Amino acid sequence: MTTAEKQKSDVFLKYLRPRKKFPSVWCPGCGNGIVMGAFIRAVDKLGYSKDNVAMVSGIGCTSRMPVYMDFNSLHTTHGRALAFATGVKFAQPNMKVVVITGDGDALAIGGNHFIHACRRNIDITTILINNYIYGMTGGQGSPTTPGGALSTTTPYGNVEKHFDPCHLAIGAGASFVGRSTVYHYPQMEKLIMQALEHKGFSLIEIISNCHTYFGRLNRKGDATAMLEFFKENSVTTAKAKNMTPEQLEDKYVIGTLHEDNVKTEFCDEYQKTVDAQRNG
Amino acid sequence: MAEPVKRLLQGNGACVEGAIYAGLKFYAGYPITPSTEIAEACARQLPRIGGRFIQMEDEIASMAAIVGASVSGLKSMTATSGPGYSLMLENIGYAYMTETPCVIVNVQRGGPSTGLPTKISQSDTMQARWGSHGDFTSVAVAPSTVGDTITETIRAFNLAERFRTPVTILLDEVIGHSREIVTLPQPGQYEIVNRVKPTVKPEKFVPFELTANGVSPMPAYGEGYRYNVTGLTHDVMGFATNRADEIQAKLDKLRNKIANYEDEIQKLRVEMMDDADVAFITYGSVSRAALQATSLARQAGKKVGSIQLYTVWPFAYDRIKELCSRCKKVIVAELNMGQVVHEVEKVVCSDTEIHTLQRYDGEILTPEQLLEKLEEVL
Amino acid sequence: MTAESNDKASIPQDRFEIRLSGSGGQGMIFGSVVLCEAIGRAGDKNVVQSQSYGPEARGGASKADVVVSSEEIYYPKAMKLDLLLAMTQEALDKYYPDLKENGMLVVDNTLVTEIPDRDHYARPFTRLAREEVGHIMVANVVALGAICALTDIVPLDVLTDAVLARAPRGTEDRNRKAIEIGYNEAMKLKKK
After folding, report:
1. Is the Cβ of C46 closer than 8 Å to some Cβ of chain B?
2. ipTM for the complex?
3. Predicted confidence band at A280 (pLDDT cuts at 50, 70, 90)?
4. Angle between helix C139-150 and helix C28-42 axes, rounded to 10 deg
5. pTM, to two decimals
């Protein structure tokens, strides 16, 4: 196979924006590329039409992802992706709407939109790439920065408590919640497929590496070392069932954490109102 | 034509009638006095026409949702008052940058901050011009009666669609809450403008192409034109740029697509100005006091005229300059500490005296107060 | 007795300003809306209605204004009232200064005891509603019936239709009765 043929056959290239100027804004080794690959392959396996996928994002390294992919893309303001996405989905309920977000974007400035999107159970898939830090602005603490961790705004160690995005989403009413890490590529891809196919609000939290800031400031090593760390410290949901809270401390529980296929979805429910009012 | 339908409506209700006539299909909003009746009417009426209503978690989200719906192809609107408008400005700026048509209603109340929820004001006039950060050219219309509110809302939607831009409707508490009997517009009575859609093949599509009139055709998501929409300053393809020439071209586009057609956007009501020595310049519900005062003054033999700004932004500098050049004096009356008066000062020549009448105590200016001012300046 | 009382020297139009006032919960706003709708049904006159909002509308004196004119109504608020309906003493005290010298004063003397020494029409609308109709809630409608008799702004049958169109289902009879009582009581006053 020639290089050209190989490129044509590569599913990844099929979904990259043909007229976009590369390279991406991401640092070499960034976990965002791994997630993008998994997302593209998930969409390809599910056979979605590119025209029927809208990718919505806010601000941050992660939020640049939709720009690179050949879907309908809406790169919005900081934290507001889910609010814009709600407009897109509600206007076109048949559109597959996906929000790509980071820990700062989704949980700090976008925290309110996050919990309300969960509460409505609107059929949006949210992929939250959690790297524990603000990357684009240069390494500031975020709502998931662990206690004691260093960042440029917690130079003496973080004194704040952190959010667990999955538990937050479950508590707020999301009907599908799962977690993965950038090390666990096949599981991540499968989880994204499940989330995309789920009817209702789905959240996939993906633990990722920002070796440039979080890694460097907290002596976690380079990208490879951080991926190794995710590998060593992850346990599956099945395994976690038989572990004590003490044993689970500082572990990443990966897999499907919550699934509710009974809860009604927002756009469907509204459509019932429309049908009733139009007929009545 | 069918028998005209007359109805007793509040200004807020009239706004919804006008919006639906203009093609409103999507409303997102957050409750705030004195605009809430608009949300309530949309919640009742939109499902009946297959439209959508959603109460969002705040005004930031409301503005975001209507932009999302508009890029998805639906004519969209939100309504609020000063505190909510402040929150919306973030994403109103996004709508300017992404050239997304939408309508924002600001039923003004007194400020700053929470201010006077149930009292009238016109103190968001400048905010409608310059509120969001950055450079852009804004469009804002100001009805003064319940009937006007229907037609100006239709006009706001048409301007938004034609120029691919957010348009603000500056209502105020008095118009929003007053009830008047109005005749509902009949099908075909008013022209309805819809955004121009691309006709080229998707692979040839240039999303923010600089066309002759500055407005780029806009597809809806799902129509096969997969393009990027971003709040970052972008090139014609919709991708973020740091190139000086592309940055300047984008900002010029935002300005010129409106500036080049200002005369088609501007709308004034000019009464009894032919031989007027003194002119009232007003907008919104104050214009009604001005018309009343003008008619009373004329009856008393005084040469007074009234200029009402239906379009507040872009400001009708040329028209105002021309109208006022024949007057000895103008009185700019508004419910704030002086906003539009500064625009008048920019163009009215030094031979004409500019006087102000400003009220900011939560009450509307009365014809009596305008007449008193008139006596004072004569 | 309506058009004549208009102060034509100051206002060039056949502008007529009405204020319905009482306390929050007495249905003054409902009354004003119905009155506007009736005027709309009756002909081509313009009307503007406005009302007190917020804390002002809850408890204390509550008001709803109706401005009627066959010409374009410029100023939407009442400037000098042609007709003041006062259902409570507080409302009367508060709004009486806004009434024209030759304006019409209509008072519910169930609750109002101190009435200015001038021409006025007083009937116990609230007591009539309670005793004759059996529902204190329709005192505002009794008052509307009286206003209908005392002025020529709207014919009785049109006002009745407008009230019934707005009234909750099941209350048609009591509302019809309330209007009639108000109308007849006022006609008695008029004959004097």
Report:
1. yes
2. 0.96
3. low
4. 40
5. 0.95
In angstroms, the CA A142 to CA A101 distance is: 13
Residues 6+ apart with CB under 8 A from C56: B118, C62
Structure tokens belonging to residue B243? 């190139």
CATH number where B94 lies: 3.40.50.970
Query: Tens digits of per-residue pLDDT, B223-243?
Result: 999 999 999 999 999 999 999
B261 class by beta-carbon count within 10 Å (0-12 exposed, 13-18 middle, 19+ buried): middle
In a domain, B355, yes or no: yes
DSSP-derived secondary structure letter, C128: H
CA distance B5 to B184: 6
| Overall number of domains in chain B | 2
Which chains does B contact via 3+ CB–CB distances below 8 A? Answer: A, C
Domains and CATH numbers, chain A: 27-279 (3.40.50.970)
Contacts of B58 in chain A (CB under 8 A): 112
Residue A126: strand pairing partners: A99, A203
Q: To the nearest whole angstrom, how far is the Cα of C28 from the nearest Cα of chain B?
A: 14
Range of the domain at B354: 268-377
Residues B304 and B155 in one domain: no
Structural domain including C151 reads: 3-191
CATH number of residue C28's parent domain: 3.40.920.10
Average pLDDT over residues B21-35: 97
Alpha-carbon span B129 to B133, nearest angstrom: 11
The domain tally of chain C equals 1
